[in-house]
């Protein structure tokens, strides 16, 4: 009896296996904890003044972003998509005109053109930068083209020398979808300021992210700036600048309600104080991933920074790799508690909302290949090197057949 009891009652049991450490695709908990005193100070200003939209904090953020980017004009709006739509309209793109956009991007790059009542015309990407290929853009230009819209994706700018030359040759505008590109510069000029204008998104996951949606238009053209400021506020002349009064003055332009909330501006003002620090941390994390994934079988490519004659600087917003069996790897990582994102599962020309444009698989092979092979790994300043080690160990195990 005692022998039986010793096997079933009172005998020491094997320790339970520790659960695998989860690594979310994105979190900013630690950053917000550290920044909370400054965030609270900025938010309290909003509460004390009692103006929660289109107020003084928004005006201060516009000035701060203008100073950081070198933009002569920075116009705060409700989100990055609105920024694109209003930029298109402010820059003079008319209904029925065409705008050349890359086939590989977030849907807003093309849907913004539709919302501005123009027509998106797709072109293929450079497979190295994932951005609009200048030669493909040139081939897409027609007599109806009003603008070319390059998208600066993930960690570097599109080939702006080539795109600006195409635009000059065809006498069309360049409008930059620089939503992901805060901190990126081309020969010292900030993204969004090489053409007629550009935009920033402050969606929470962005390099400079709010607690919700917010966006901004950047331009050096005073006419574009004035029109954008009017369009964001129901066609009214009122601006966030303190000395401008009388917001009831109507401009005769049909606008929309895309004013930025002061709470988001307050958060962004606080976070702007550590933007350069966050950019540097992102570079460290990208280098750590590069080193650990360099010889992993199944990893086809880690991020490539294009070698150019112009001076450019990478700013890592997303860490994107190309892999074999992408969907199976994503499922395996999810099973291990590791978050990922697919940028982008379907190229724009094959999305149902653009079916009327008549494209078929094979029309833009570089964009289609990127959609089939790319996966974004966890990447944000709160990520630790231990987290990077875990992600890379799981990826290596997946491709080598080992268990983790």
Automatic annotation (TrEMBL):
The active site is at 206 (proton acceptor). One of its GO terms (molecular function) is pyridoxal phosphate binding. GO terms for biological process: polysaccharide biosynthetic process. The modification N6-(pyridoxal phosphate)lysine is found at residue 206. Pfam families: DegT_DnrJ_EryC1. The keyword Metal-binding does not apply. InterPro entries: DegT/StrS_aminotransferase, PyrdxlP-dep_Trfase, PyrdxlP-dep_Trfase_major, PyrdxlP-dep_Trfase_small. It comes from the Bacteria. This is Pleiotropic regulatory protein. The gene is degT.
């Amino acid at each position: 009896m005692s022998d039986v009891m010793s096997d079933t009652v009172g005998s020491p049991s094997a320790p339970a296996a520790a659960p695998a450490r989860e690594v979310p695709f994105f979190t900013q908990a630690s950053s917000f904890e550290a920044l909370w005193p400054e965030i609270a100070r900025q938010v309290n200003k909003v509460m004390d003044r009692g103006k929660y939209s289109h107020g003084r904090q928004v005006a201060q953020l516009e000035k701060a972003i203008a100073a950081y980017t070198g933009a002569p004009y920075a116009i705060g709006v409700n989100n990055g998509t609105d920024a694109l739509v209003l930029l298109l309209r402010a820059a003079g793109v008319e209904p029925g005109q065409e705008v050349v956009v890359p086939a590989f991007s977030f849907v807003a790059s093309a849907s913004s053109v539709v919302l501005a009542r123009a027509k998106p015309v797709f072109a293929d990407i450079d497979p190295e930068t994932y951005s609009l290929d200048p030669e493909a853009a040139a081939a897409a230009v027609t007599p109806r083209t009003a603008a070319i819209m390059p998208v600066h994706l993930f960690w570097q700018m599109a080939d702006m020398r080539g795109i600006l030359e195409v635009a000059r040759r065809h006498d069309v505008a360049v409008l930059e979808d620089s939503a992901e590109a805060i901190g990126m510069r081309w020969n010292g000029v900030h993204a969004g300021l090489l053409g007629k204008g550009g935009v920033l998104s402050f969606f929470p996951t962005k390099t400079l992210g709010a607690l919700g949606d917010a966006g901004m238009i950047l331009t050096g053209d005073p006419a574009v700036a004035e029109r954008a400021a009017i369009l964001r506020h129901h066609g009214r002349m009122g601006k966030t600048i303190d000395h401008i009064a009388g917001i009831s003055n109507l401009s005769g332009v049909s606008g929309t309600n895309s004013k930025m909330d002061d709470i988001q501006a307050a958060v962004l003002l606080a976070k702007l104080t550590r933007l350069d620090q966050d950019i540097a941390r992102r570079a460290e994390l990208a280098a750590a991933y590069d080193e650990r994934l360099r010889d992993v079988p199944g990893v086809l490519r880690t991020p490539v920074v294009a070698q150019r004659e112009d001076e450019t600087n990478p700013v890592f917003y997303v860490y994107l790799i190309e892999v074999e069996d992408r969907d199976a790897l994503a499922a395996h990582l999810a099973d291990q508690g590791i978050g990922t994102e697919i940028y982008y599962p379907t190229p724009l020309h094959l999305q149902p909302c653009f079916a009327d444009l008549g494209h078929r698989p094979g029309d833009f092979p570089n964009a289609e290949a990127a959609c089939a092979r790319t996966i974004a790994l966890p990447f944000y300043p709160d990520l630790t090197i231990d987290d990077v080690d875990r992600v890379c160990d799981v990826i290596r195990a997946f491709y080598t057949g080992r268990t983790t």
